[in-house]
Specification:
This protein is α/β, with parallel strands linked by helices. About 40% of the residues lie in helices and about 15% in strands. Strands 3-4-2-1-5-6 form a 6-stranded parallel beta sheet, with helices on both faces. Helix 1 packs across helix 2 and helix 2 runs parallel beside helix 3. The chain is globular. The protein starts with 11 loop residues before the first strand and ends in a 16-residue tail after the last helix. It binds farnesyl diphosphate. The site of farnesyl diphosphate has 18 residues, from helix 1, helix 2 and helix 3.
Length: about 250
Amino acid sequence: MSELIGAAVPVHIAIIMDGNGRWATRRGLPRTLGHREGAETLKRVARYCKDIGVGYLTVYAFSTENWKRPGDEVSGIIRLLRHYINTFESDPERDRIRVNFIGDIETLNADVQRDFRSISERTRGNRDAINLTIAFNYGARDEIVRAARKAAALAAQGELVPEQLDEAMLSGLLDTRAMPDPDLLIRAGAESRISNFMLWQLAYTELYFTDTLWPDFRDADIDAAVAAYAARQRRFGGLSTGRGGGS
Ligand code: FPP
């Protein structure tokens, strides 16, 4: 187990799981096999994050832009996620994870929505569990637009005076209302972009980019990211000099 226990472990880690396609292509395999390996990596990472005391793990599984990919790749990712959900009962981790979804879920097929609801309800009561949030059909701008629409609807019904709308209220209208903002964002796969992921919530998050492709990501990569996080000073725009750990 990690020597990180007791160190400044982030409460909330967000991950952009990039590089599945390149991992597969380099091996002469179909991209879908890269996603399958990526799903295995996610299981290991969730287990490890739970072990080192992370409270929330939020992963970008499918963006609102990913529908532009070839149909067989899209259906492969959806099938994989449903397989992950449907085999959850036999997963040794099932009592240590609370699963949730963010994104525009209501526009997905009814059977996909049913699977999402089923695993959320099945795991809701898990005590002492890590909160695994899967961003699916998610785009940060879309999330903010949906929140703005809710606020506009409240105003139109006379339930909200525009001047009442502040940061806390808008946060409460986002998909992430029940969780703290991420302390650390990790992006695997050798790109240095945010790619429309949690734009509002990442305002003060420490960013960590690594060349490691997501299917190659191991416990040691989490250790390296958390160590980099712990060594940084978080000031939230002020002058405090505490190191890591959400100071
Ligand atoms: C980015 O790699 C990855 C995705 C778009 C999909 C991520 C999905 C998974 C890890 C599997 C989902 C399963 C579960 C259980 C949540 P890419 O295809 O953009 O890689 P590339 O940049 O190398 O082409």
